[in-house]
Amino acid sequence: MGVIRAILMVLFVLVCIALTVVVLMQEGKSNGLGAIAGGNSFWEQNKSRSAEGKIVLATKILAIAFIVLALVLNLNIF
Fold this sequence. Notes:
With 78 residues, the protein is mainly alpha-helical.
């Protein structure tokens, strides 16, 4: 059982590091002058297909993995 806990702990540390890097890679959410025009530009409509959209998706996935691993490691069954 100690081996499983060690593997989960290493995975948890890797997820923590990856989550930190991905969050720091995100751009600011300020609209600047784009807010004056309503912010409904081509860039806003296709944001999910851009690199920024993929970074946001990676953040969500890593955050869920972080929470799940934290809960599993806290159960003390391993």
